[in-house]
Structure formats: C-alpha cells, structure tokens
C-alpha cells in the first residue's frame, strides 16, 4: 500500500493540465512504452497494487516499482523515455550496411558450416567485422527496422547460356511485345500440374496448436496448359489427363479459335520437350503460319508471366485443400480461373471470353 499512497499523493499535487496529459498519453501515445508507463501510474492511482498489475499482464512488478519511483520523484517528466541519455548508439551506418550485406550472403561465406542465419550468429559476425558487440534484442529491433523477414528461399536452376546470349534472347521477346503489329497477339504459355495430394503451405494457427491436412494417400494428377495474353492479361486454358504433346496442341488449337481475327499468334514458352516435339511441329505447320513459337532461354521461369498465375492458383486452391477426389478439386480449379477471367471482363468489356 505504501507505493499506491506515494503515487496517489504525488498525483494530488499535479496541476489539472498535467493529469490530463498523463491520461491522454495513456490512451493514444504513439510510443507504446510511454503509453504503458502512463497506464501503470493510473492503475496505482486507482488503488491497484503492483502484484495485481503484474497479474493482469500489464507489467512486471519490478517495472511497476521503477515507474512509481520515477513518477514520485519527478512527476510526469519521469515517465519520458531516457534512452537518449545512454550516449551514442553502437549501431552506426557502416554497421547497418555490413549487416545488409551479410544477410544477402550465407554464414558459409564467413567461414561457418551453418547454412542459415540466426540473430546471435549475425551479431557475432558483425562484431568480428566492426568490433561492436550488440545484444540479440538489439539485433532483433535492427532487423525489424530494415523489414528483414524470415522466409523460404526459392530454388532455382542456373541458365546454361552465357549472359550475353540470354540477354539478347530476352530483349528480342520484349521488343516483340512492345512493337506488336496490328492484328497480332502475344501470349505466355506454360503447363501446371494439379495433384490430389495437397501442397502444404503456411497458415495461421493458434499458439501451441498445429493444423492438420488430410491427404487421400494415393495421388492423382491432372494437367492444365494455359496462355496469358501479354497485352490484356486474357487467360485461356485447357485440361487433360496426361502432360504430353497432345495437351500443348490442344491449347494451340484453342488459341486459334479464341483469336479468329489474329493474323499471327506469337507464343512465348519454355524449352519443355512437348513444345518442340515432331507432333507439335506438324500441328504448328497445319495451322498455316498462324502460330509462331518463341522460346525463352533455359531455366528462366521468372520471365514467363503465366508462372505467376499458376502460383496464385496454388495459393488460392490447391495448397492445404480439403477436396476428397479429383473431380471436386478440378471443379475448384476451374471456378477460380473462371472467376479470374470474369474479373478481367470488367476491365476489358469488349474482349471475348476465354
């Protein structure tokens, strides 16, 4: 009771304006720490003990006593942040630059066997480089300020072509799209696998609990081949039970029907074997020059814009799905793609449906 009486006595000596300031800061200060200290003072003024304040999770008892002491001795001024009195910050601009460079690399580049970073290891490496030792808490705040996140790296395969050759091929395709003649269209084409066994992805869960995803056991597959218009974003797709040349040829014939007025359809695609098989070449020739294939450099999925459509499809449909059989899953897949196409109609009302 001694702490409450001391705080209440100091509170009675405040001017009305000072009390109003403390109440205002307790409700809406942008500084969370200052807001918490003001709430502690108001709780003590109302008669709550340090033990009661700690029990409800507002602050620890030791923090309540520290805040009360500062308030009794200095009044509302004692509730302000005093970190500016700690002297010059250890973290300099050079330290932050070295930190960003280290995060972009791997611990193995600094002589460690561990392939991934921890906050403690970052602090150790930066200490060796700069001579400045900081705590894990300080490192955590620094990473948060730079918006550094803990995520999954993306696996890639290096392109076997030389950089100059790869750049020339990509520039040719970009120039084609930018200077596309009238009555000609360009589309990005790729296939996607649909598995009955769901892809597992991150989801929100309660602390101490883990969601489960029921898998059918025996996997089934369906395959889609899709084309994304490079200018309008129009999406066309076909479905088949096998991923072979017939699937790709089916898509080419569908494109010829979707663009009857087009003098030529430029198809931008990767180097998958079904795109350049003997059957595919015969089918392209049978279309009478209406379709022309433009192959991307090997292992360059980031330059095929339809890959993003398939990623969105997995994020919205197949990841952690609960479909019990393939017909139900394909119904969800087609519903999502139709909804995406319907949204495009509102943006391009004169465009025919895909």
* Order of helical and strand elements: HHHHHHHHHEEEHEHEHH
How big is the Rg? 31 Å
CATH-defined superfamily of the largest domain? Ribonuclease H-like superfamily/Ribonuclease H
Regions with little confidence, pLDDT below 50 for 5+ residues: none
Write the CATH architecture name of the largest domain: 2-Layer Sandwich
* Number of DSSP E strands: 5
Let me know the largest β-sheet: 5 strands, mixed
How many structural domains can be distinguished in the coordinates? 3
And the CATH topology of the largest domain? Nucleotidyltransferase, domain 5
Characterization of the model:
The structure is a single chain. The protein is an alpha/beta fold and 354 residues long. It is 47% helix and 11% strand. The chain has three domains: 2-85, no CATH class; 93-145, no CATH class; 163-200 and 215-346, Ribonuclease H-like superfamily/Ribonuclease H (Nucleotidyltransferase, domain 5, 2-Layer Sandwich). The protein has helices at residues 2-12, 16-28, 32-45, 50-55, 61-74, 93-104, 119-130, 136-145, 163-178, 245-258, 278-286, 306-318, 326-347, and strands at residues 184-195, 221-229, 235-240, 264-269, 291-295.
